[in-house]
Design brief:
The relative contact order is 0.20. With 88 residues, the chain is of the alpha+beta class. It has a domain of 44 residues. The strands form two sheets. The chain has a two-stranded antiparallel ribbon. It has a two-stranded antiparallel ribbon with strand order 3-4. The protein contains one helix and four strands; from the N terminus they run ββαββ.
């Protein structure tokens, strides 16, 4: 067992969102029968971050912070997108 919070499953997880421009009553993606691994509509957690930033009125591609002399994006260096199905 690792430190608290580090024994989570990053291959498949559940997220519950409500209000604030979120479209309710839906499920996006699915895991296998044991809940271990995503098998349908796999998304990266940074896509979720991009979506939440969008709902807050922030452009995740333009929002940066200075780290060790370089501008960094909150959603990382890989291309990320807003999950349109989440938006009301």
């Amino acid at each position: 067992v690792n430190k608290p919070g580090r024994d989570h499953n990053h291959y498949g997880f559940t997220m519950w969102l409500a209000g604030g421009g979120v479209k309710g009553g839906q499920r996006i993606g699915a895991t296998d029968e044991t809940g271990f691994q995503a098998v349908e509509r796999r998304l990266h957690v940074s896509d979720l971050h991009a979506t939440i930033l969008h709902l807050l009125g922030l452009d995740h591609e333009r929002l940066t912070f200075l780290h060790e002399g370089l501008d960094q994006r909150l959603t990382g260096v890989q291309p990320r997108r807003v999950i349109q199905e989440v938006l009301a």
